[in-house]
Amino acid sequence: MDDSKLLQLGLRAARSIVDEKPFVTDLAEGLRGVVGADCVCIDVCRGWPEQTPVVTLAGEPGDLTASETDDWMQLSAVDDPYIMNLVATRDPLPYRVSDLTTLSRFRRTSVYREIYAGFEMRYLVAMAPRITDHDMVIVGLTRRLHDFSDVEARALHPLRHLLSAAFDYQQLVSKIRAELRTVPVDVDPRRLTLTQREDQVLALVAAGHTNDQVARRLGVSPRTVRKHLEAVFPKVGVSNRVAAVAWWLRQN
């Protein structure tokens, strides 16, 4: 497996996530080729656990019927070692089934007997690039003949981190866009006069820097950065950091 190709694949997917473009099919096909899997399954669920995920498959067995997909998801929720561990611990890292249980025990589960065995998929590794109270994205890779190696499992860690960061960034951008739509346009111009340092602080915050990073860039303490932000809020007629960033982006 070529680690550089795996990261390139992750970078392309991350860029698509940030740009709110389709990424699932290309990622699934790419993982199948780069990692070497007989099947790659990506589940995207908005509003779990109430909503049914959108399932994308690359490789064998190909597209499943809606009924087969529903059966798979229902069995996975109560019988799949990775899903059960993910829901119980919220640990999104890559794990093989063999990391969580013995293969003999896994092959006695309903999800194996009724789904995986039918397609002769004996080995599984999965990861969750995103899991929140509302959204979940799971990437699973399966093989017929041999388990995934320690090296292959470890190589998925930076890929998962990259995709997770892209989802977090995209969510932040969405929040800022929502704030931009709600920032009042009739604020008294006298309230919008920022000092040079306040403008510097807000510009760095808008670029994604934390208070500690802003403090290091400007040679001041994090407490001073917080004081500058607190002074900015009433001037621009907002009550929080995200709204202040939205206002600054709108002005600039």
Q: Roughly what is the average pLDDT, rounded to an integer?
A: 87
Uncertain regions spanning at least 5 consecutive residues: none
What does the overall shape look like? elongated
Order of helices and strands: HHEEHHEHHHEEHHHHH
Task: Set down the secondary structure blueprint.
Blueprint: H1 3-18, H2 24-36, E1 39-46, E2 54-59, H3 66-79, H4 81-89, E3 95-96, H5 97-100, H6 103-106, H7 110-116, E4 123-131, E5 135-143, H8 150-182, H9 196-206, H10 211-218, H11 222-236, H12 241-251
Antiparallel strand pairs: 1-2, 1-5, 3-4, 4-5
Helix pairs in contact: 1-2, 1-8, 3-7, 8-12, 9-11, 9-12, 10-11
Provide structural commentary.
There is one protein chain. Helices cover 58% and strands 13% of the residues. With 252 residues, the chain is α+β, with helices and mostly antiparallel strands. Strands 2-1-5-4-3 form a 5-stranded antiparallel beta sheet. Helix 9 packs across helix 12. It is elongated, with a radius of gyration of 23 Å. The two termini are 45 Å apart. The model has no long low-confidence stretch (mean pLDDT 87).
Keywords:
about 250 residues; alpha+beta; five-stranded antiparallel β-sheet
Give a summary of the structure in a few sentences.
The protein is 58% helix and 13% strand.
